[in-house]
């Protein structure tokens, strides 16, 4: 069993990445294709099958015992289906069934991309050694996942910990999800940029209106840019504090493009957290940047597959 490896897929709106990963989390083989996100569902799944076929051509493939998928969501692990917002051709698409067939019948474990990044951070990143953690991705959207009692907690459908759609502003702006005042509607990169522009922030000569450009302006002291990040930090703090109060997490790990703003985000976030995480059992909550980088989705999908494989083997043995 120590020699076993797992296959992993990280499926998003831009790329479909695949890897063979050993028990130490080392990536042995990689494969990648662009996601034909605007094509029909069959075209998209053919790109996934091409990645699996490339992995299967590796001499390491014979040691693969399971396959993990971290996919953009929503996902439904209980049904093995995915309906990613940014892949319109996939609605309740039977991804697990198709990938199992393409892999020659390997057991397949499906989780959402936020849960995958959580698995990676708990295995090899900033949440390592913590039994109760929230890990978040703050980027184009805001996603997340939970570790509870030392184990990944994906929930029945694979979406537990989706902090981006906790409402933190009861009368806030409508969110595309259908609710109001969601964390994502305030703290995602595009919404940070939108709020800064609405407030009168002017981009530089290059015309860059991204959240990264707003972060640079905030770092240089622009008050409108700084205020937009402070509002995002407040929304994140309220969501993190609510989660901590509910399930007693010890650490919140934040990754994604917006987290690269550094102290522009983390300083007001830690300040705001003092206003929201007030009960004795959440006051010592640690907030820290993620560590696992661009391979987090693959490493997390592999971790979930290894965990499911080990649990199945233990069940058979018991």
TrEMBL record:
Q: Which PANTHER family match?
A: N-ACETYLMANNOSAMINE KINASE, ROK (REPRESSOR, ORF, KINASE) FAMILY
Q: One of this protein's Pfam families, by short name?
A: ROK
Q: What is this protein called?
A: ROK family protein
Family of this protein: Belongs to the ROK (NagC/XylR) family.
This protein's source sits in the domain of life called Bacteria
Query: What's the source species' lineage?
Result: Bacteria, Bacillati, Actinomycetota, Actinomycetes, Kitasatosporales
């Amino acid at each position: 069993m120590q020699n076993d490896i797992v296959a992993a897929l990280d499926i998003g709106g831009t790329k479909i990445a695949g890897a063979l990963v050993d028990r130490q989390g080392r990536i042995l083989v990689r494969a990648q294709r662009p996601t034909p996100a605007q094509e029909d569902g069959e075209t998209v799944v053919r790109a996934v099958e091409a990645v699996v076929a490339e992995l299967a051509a590796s001499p390491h493939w014979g040691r693969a015992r399971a396959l993990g998928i971290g996919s953009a969501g929503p996902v439904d692990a209980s049904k093995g289906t995915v309906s990613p917002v940014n892949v319109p051709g996939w609605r309740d698409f039977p991804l697990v069934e198709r990938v199992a067939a393409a892999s020659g019948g390997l057991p397949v474990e499906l989780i959402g991309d936020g849960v995958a990044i959580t698995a990676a951070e708990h295995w090899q990143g900033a949440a390592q050694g913590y039994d109760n953690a929230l890990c978040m991705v703050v980027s184009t959207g805001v996603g997340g996942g939970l570790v509870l009692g030392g184990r990944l907690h994906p929930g029945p459908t694979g979406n537990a910990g989706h902090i981006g759609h906790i409402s933190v502003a009861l009368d806030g702006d409508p969110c595309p999800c259908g609710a109001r005042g969601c964390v994502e509607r305030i703290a995602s990169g595009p919404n940070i940029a939108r709020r800064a522009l609405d407030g009168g922030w002017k981009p530089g000569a290059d015309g860059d209106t991204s959240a990264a450009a707003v972060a640079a302006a905030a770092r240089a002291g622009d008050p409108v840019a700084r205020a937009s990040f402070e509002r995002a930090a407040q929304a994140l703090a309220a969501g993190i504090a609510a989660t901590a109060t509910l399930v007693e997490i010890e650490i919140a790990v934040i990754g994604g493009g917006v987290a690269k703003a550094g102290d522009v985000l983390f300083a007001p976030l830690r300040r705001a957290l003092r206003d929201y995480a007030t009960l004795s059992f959440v006051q010592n909550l640690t907030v820290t940047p993620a560590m696992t980088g661009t391979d987090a989705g693959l490493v997390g999908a592999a971790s979930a597959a290894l965990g499911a494989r080990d649990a199945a083997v233990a069940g058979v043995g018991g």
